[in-house]
Amino acid sequence: MSALSPTEALMPEISAPIVLALPKGRILDAVAPILRAAGIVPAPDCLDGDSRRLRFPTDDPGLDVIRVRPFDVATFVAFGAAQIGICGADVLMEFDYPEIYAPLDLRVGGCRVSVAEPADLPPTDPACWSQVRVATKYPNVARRHFAAKGIHADIVHLNGAMELAPNLGLSRLIVDLVQTGGTLRANGLHETEVIAEISSRLIVNRTALKTRPEAIASLIDRFRAALAEGAGS
Amino acid sequence: MTDHPPPSPALLPAGMRDLLPPDAETEAMALAALMEVFASHGYGRVRPPLLEFEDSLLAGNNAALAEQTFRLMDPGTHRMMAVRPDMTPQVARIAASRLGGAPRPLRLSYAGTCVQVSGGVLETDREVSQAGIELVGADSAEADAEVIAVGSEALAVLGLRRISFDLTVPPLASTLITEFGLPEPDRAPLLRALDRKDGAAVQRHGGALAPVLNALLLAAGPAARALEVLRAQPLTPGARALADRLAAVVAAVERRAPGLRPTVDPIEFRGWRYHTGVCVTVFAAARHEELGRGGRYVGPGGEPACGLTLRPELLLRAAPARPTRSRLFLPFGTAAATAQAMRAQGFGTVAALDLAEDDLAEARRLGCTHVMRNGRAEAL
């Protein structure tokens, strides 16, 4: 359709509920106490991993919750499909959407983005490298990290099981999320460098903050108050 | 080895689009309505060229435009030419050169197409239309407010009423950081953290300034509350002067356009980076994009100026649908004088080029809303 057709005109958002995007999986469990302390009560099946629903009402008719993959939380919020969300700083580093504000560190979901390589690899000096092949689900983070050292990173983009890549000859090293290091050790890898320490962030769509400042600010305040009470830590 | 099938001839480069009927006409009419508002406030229209020499377009504060600029070589002079990604620097150049002798304050308006190397994340157009005003040679809160008030009137003409004007002071954060004497290595990461309103990173890089900056970050919102936070925070002298100017602009805007209710974000500094004072970003409540942006800058030769640039195609997407012209089918042989009279009434006439079997069916087939029967225009 054409640029000006009414079908493309978006629904007015003023009356529509605010949408909070939550990440499925690990972080969701860690975030549950903070949601509770912030007085956000989603439908009971929202925090239950088995539910097939994706969108849930809360006890507040002005607030709905959606549950999506962690990487998609950032995309939903960046494009304004959700006005507010919770996701790991690793996702923000990877996508680097200018439309996302990250006003609050929720101090849960702690882990790190690290470089790892086979433990039995003979040591070499990375300063001599011109390029290196890296398997990762964070291509932008990895490229930036190595570019800053003057190394071109050839990226092998994988969505999981990164730990297999070096020992099967797919890459020399990997860049991945590390929580305890147990998976690395079990696959004969060791961590050589920490790129960034990661925790979960409350994120906000820029335009939503500008056009619905009262509603968004009051939600941020509720999360802040919940953190001050010590929820989550 | 098999080749891919040849690309469809209808495929356009990313970010380019054809506007079809009736949208192209709607756009032209809306643009005319915008320009009429600007003209009615005494803004004289200029029309800079699509291309100019790169070194003049990107001179001085406009260097930030470079990464969005397409360039080509002028075979005559062997100098690089740039396709404008933004018109404000062109208007500023005209004001400083060809209209350098014109009385100040000088009010100029403009409309035209710009081309940018890459579209945004949300709005991927690379050919962007702009319509705007520049008020050159005045450095006062009243001048800043006039540009905003005229812009708001132009938006109202398009039926856009739920508009949010977000006032910012791009130099405030960097002035505060420089005057405070924050260590050099922390400045760039801190500015980036501020741009993303990343509270944790501001805490990490902000040193003793972090509490002030975080308070300002969270002050974004309705003007009264944000200005109160700005007043309460300890600012350095230069930053305080900028904050006072912001307060004066808010007061002047509220005086001129009481219904406007601007929001304020003290720490935002997005944009083309040539701005030196109070700026404004226009949002529509129902849309995710910015509809326009403007603010105070220093023109070539050091002359103070401010302006506002709107994005007509985005305005139209956000505005209520405009009534399109009624199309009247004229059966073969309709008298020229009759046709003329119907056009005078506002119809777009669609004249049959030969005798149709069924005028009604033919009128419907051609997308007409009316058909000429028995000397009258009958609605279909």
Automatic annotation (TrEMBL), chain A:
Molecular function as annotated in GO: ATP phosphoribosyltransferase activity
Keywords: Amino-acid biosynthesis, ATP-binding, Cytoplasm, Glycosyltransferase, Histidine biosynthesis, Nucleotide-binding, Transferase
Subcellular location: Cytoplasm
Main subcellular location of this protein, as a coarse class: cytoplasm
Gene3D superfamilies per UniProt: Periplasmic binding protein-like II
Catalytic activity: 1-(5-phospho-beta-D-ribosyl)-ATP + diphosphate = 5-phospho-alpha-D-ribose 1-diphosphate + ATP
Pfam families associated with the record: HisG
Domain of life (superkingdom): Bacteria
Family classification: Belongs to the ATP phosphoribosyltransferase family. Short subfamily.
Entry function: Catalyzes the condensation of ATP and 5-phosphoribose 1-diphosphate to form N'-(5'-phosphoribosyl)-ATP (PR-ATP). Has a crucial role in the pathway because the rate of histidine biosynthesis seems to be controlled primarily by regulation of HisG enzymatic activity.
Assembly with partners or alone: Heteromultimer composed of HisG and HisZ subunits.
Protein name, as recorded: ATP phosphoribosyltransferase
Organism: Rhizosaccharibacter radicis
Encoding gene per record: hisG
Automatic annotation (TrEMBL), chain B:
An MF annotation (GO) of this entry: glycosyltransferase activity
Additional record remark: This function is generally fulfilled by the C-terminal part of HisG, which is missing in some bacteria such as this one.
HAMAP family, per database record: HisZ
Family: Belongs to the class-II aminoacyl-tRNA synthetase family. HisZ subfamily.
PANTHER family, per database record: HISTIDINE--TRNA LIGASE, MITOCHONDRIAL-RELATED, HISTIDYL-TRNA SYNTHETASE
Task of the protein: Required for the first step of histidine biosynthesis. May allow the feedback regulation of ATP phosphoribosyltransferase activity by histidine.
Source domain of life: Bacteria
Keywords in alphabetical order: Amino-acid biosynthesis, Cytoplasm, Glycosyltransferase, Histidine biosynthesis, Transferase
Pathway as given in its UniProt record: Amino-acid biosynthesis; L-histidine biosynthesis; L-histidine from 5-phospho-alpha-D-ribose 1-diphosphate: step 1/9
Native source species: Rhizosaccharibacter radicis
Domain Aminoacyl-transfer RNA synthetases class-II family profile residues, every copy: 32-295
Protein name: ATP phosphoribosyltransferase regulatory subunit
Localization: Cytoplasm
Main localization, broad class: cytoplasm
